[in-house]
Write a structure and sequence with these properties.
The chain is about 35% helix and about 25% strand. It is of the alpha/beta class. The chain has a domain of about 150 residues: P-loop containing nucleotide triphosphate hydrolases (Rossmann fold, 3-Layer(aba) Sandwich). Strands 6-7-8-3-9-10 form a six-stranded mixed beta sheet, with helices on both faces. Strands 2-1-4-5 form a four-stranded antiparallel beta sheet. A hairpin with a 2-residue loop joins strand 1 and strand 2. Bound molecules: adenosine-5'-diphosphate and magnesium ion.
Length: about 260
């Protein structure tokens, strides 16, 4: 018996219909992601990465090919998916705790209000936001808001966490703190991650596999297995194994951008 991957895209092809005609965005894309693994997707700007996340979340459907979550064809938005984006959309009229609880008010569940608050509190503590439960979003820094948004994405224990450049707008130090928070969340919670990023160091620090997409229309150009183990710290990024992987990825991105550097004659 073969176990189907948690997320699979098979021969996915998609075009947007625009006034100027069809815009092909994805071209026979194939990606398979195992349960509880962490996959990062990198690729040139505008190549179709966010489109890919919408297809996995069931917010859109491909023209051709199949998107499956745990073997089941995705035909509608899934409650088993949690999402976080570059700009955490938190509701200003709700406290941080009430923002985090929101999915539990939408996704069917049998939790009491007290259990919901307990669950939100547990996650907020895990990401270092204990004591900020009653604050409003505007009272928090960008990094803290993004932490809260990760909690909200995970509060209903989704099987799949989709992150679309969630750390892209943060300064470098805050971003690295958030990477460590992501590691901690992974240690404590169970979910399969799909991260879109343009930061190659981020992809190597967080992921088990890095998928490089070609330029638009995107297809799977290259897959890197990151064998740095589960216990990673930031220093590892400066060690030979990671440096080599980063050079490899940078080279692949140059190919994807159509400006591969020729070896000097
Ligand atoms: N709803 C839409 N209608 C038409 N074109 C779109 C739509 N969404 C995205 N696009 C275009 O499709 C391409 C891929 O978009 P996107 O998936 O957001 O790329 P990425 O996230 O890799 O930057 C871009 O050229 C973008 O302008
Ligand atoms: Mg995008």
């Amino acid at each position: 018996m073969t176990i189907s991957p948690q997320i699979s895209l098979t021969n996915v092809t998609h075009a947007y219909q625009t006034q100027a005609g069809p815009l092909p965005v994805l071209n026979h894309l194939n990606i398979a992601i195992e349960k509880n693994s962490f996959t990062a997707v990198v690729g040139p700007s505008g190549c179709g990465k966010s489109t890919l996340t919408r297809l996995v979340a069931g917010l859109m459907f491909p023209d051709e090919g199949e998107v499956r979550l745990h073997g089941e064809l995705v035909t509608s938005p899934r409650a088993t998916v949690g999402m976080a984006f570059q700009n955490p959309v938190l509701l200003e009229w709700r406290s941080i705790l009430d923002n985090v609880i929101l999915p539990l008010e939408i996704v069917p569940n049998t939790l009491t209000q007290q259990q919901r608050e307990q669950r939100a509190h547990e996650l907020l503590t895990l990401v270092g936001l204990e004591g900020f439960e009653r604050k409003r979003p505007s009272e928090l820094s960008g990094g803290m808001r993004q932490r809260a948004s990760l909690c909200r994405a995970l509060v209903h224990r989704p099987e799949v966490l989709i992150l679309d450049e969630p750390f892209g707008a943060l300064d470098a130090f805050t971003r690295e703190d958030l990477w460590q928070t992501m590691h901690e969340l992974r240690r404590q919670e169970e979910f399969t991650s799909l991260l879109i990023t343009h930061d190659l160091r981020e992809s190597v620090f967080l992921a088990d596999h890095v998928v490089v997409l070609s330029g638009r229309p995107a297809t799977t150009q290259y897959v890197l297995e990151v064998d740095l183990g589960d216990e990673r710290d930031l220093d590892d990024l400066y060690k030979p194994a990671a440096v080599e992987m980063l050079a490899d990825l940078r080279h692949q991105i140059q190919i994807a951008q159509g400006r591969e550097v020729q070896a000097p004659k």
